[in-house]
């Protein structure tokens, strides 16, 4: 039986309780043995120059997931050529860990846009998708080739977004219900987003 690993990527600026909740749903699905959280240095599709430093986002990720034993933070994308496309990360990891079966993890809202991703068809050649369900998302527009490679996991999404947290932090509104305590402390101590 090969080791099965889910790959869950993002900028995590900042990581929040919604990310932790979705990670738990991926683990609880029993489809994967472990979840690797991939921190993206600078994502090709987001052109904002004001992304928080890689190291600070990594520090927040490490404290946020420290209590989850089946979750590992993986920094491989920081050492790969830029820009960071998911396909190059997946191919690199498959070469590095030939006995591992990888699943690419995303939320159901992202699945609806997956066909617009660069090299999405190549990603499907390399691994299957693990998708956390979101009520009310329709797949009428989603191509059959994508759905045939998709495993859905049950999940109750939290209505939290990193961009909302950044604007709340800027307004000095409390974010303590949306992020883990240790992440809130980093944001406050470093005066991120203000």
Automatic annotation (TrEMBL):
<dbReference type="GO" id="GO:0004515">
    <property type="term" value="F:nicotinate-nucleotide adenylyltransferase activity"/>
</dbReference>
<keyword id="KW-0520">NAD</keyword>
<comment type="function">
    <text>Catalyzes the reversible adenylation of nicotinate mononucleotide (NaMN) to nicotinic acid adenine dinucleotide (NaAD).</text>
</comment>
<feature type="domain" description="Cytidyltransferase-like">
    <location>
        <begin position="7"/>
        <end position="167"/>
    </location>
</feature>
<keyword id="KW-0662">Pyridine nucleotide biosynthesis</keyword>
<comment type="similarity">
    <text>Belongs to the NadD family.</text>
</comment>
<keyword id="KW-0067">ATP-binding</keyword>
<keyword id="KW-0547">Nucleotide-binding</keyword>
<dbReference type="InterPro" id="IPR014729">
    <property type="entry name" value="Rossmann-like_a/b/a_fold"/>
</dbReference>
<comment type="pathway">
    <text>Cofactor biosynthesis; NAD(+) biosynthesis; deamido-NAD(+) from nicotinate D-ribonucleotide: step 1/1.</text>
</comment>
<dbReference type="Pfam" id="PF01467">
    <property type="entry name" value="CTP_transf_like"/>
</dbReference>
<dbReference type="InterPro" id="IPR004821">
    <property type="entry name" value="Cyt_trans-like"/>
</dbReference>
<keyword id="KW-0808">Transferase</keyword>
<protein>
    <recommendedName>
        <fullName>Probable nicotinate-nucleotide adenylyltransferase</fullName>
        <ecNumber>2.7.7.18</ecNumber>
    </recommendedName>
</protein>
<dbReference type="InterPro" id="IPR005248">
    <property type="entry name" value="NadD/NMNAT"/>
</dbReference>
<keyword id="KW-0548">Nucleotidyltransferase</keyword>
């Amino acid at each position: 039986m090969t080791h099965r690993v889910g790959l869950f990527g993002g900028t995590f600026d900042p990581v929040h309780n919604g990310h932790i909740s979705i990670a738990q749903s991926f683990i609880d699905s029993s489809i994967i043995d472990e979840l690797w959280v991939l921190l993206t240095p600078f994502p090709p599709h987001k052109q904002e120059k004001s992304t928080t430093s890689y190291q600070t986002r990594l520090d927040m990720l490490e404290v946020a997931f420290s209590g989850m034993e089946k979750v590992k933070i993986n920094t491989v994308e920081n050492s790969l050529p830029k820009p960071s496309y998911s396909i190059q990360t997946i191919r690199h990891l498959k070469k590095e860990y030939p006995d591992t079966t990888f699943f690419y993890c995303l939320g159901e809202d992202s699945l609806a846009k997956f066909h617009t991703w660069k090299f999405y068809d190549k990603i499907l050649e390399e691994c299957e998708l693990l998708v956390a369900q979101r009520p009310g998302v329709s797949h009428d527009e989603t191509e059959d080739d994508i759905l045939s490679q998709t495993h859905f996991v049950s999940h109750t999404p939290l209505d939290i977004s990193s961009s909302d947290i950044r604007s709340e932090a800027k307004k000095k509104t409390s974010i303590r219900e949306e992020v883990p305590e240790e992440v809130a402390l980093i944001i406050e101590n470093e005066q991120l987003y203000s």
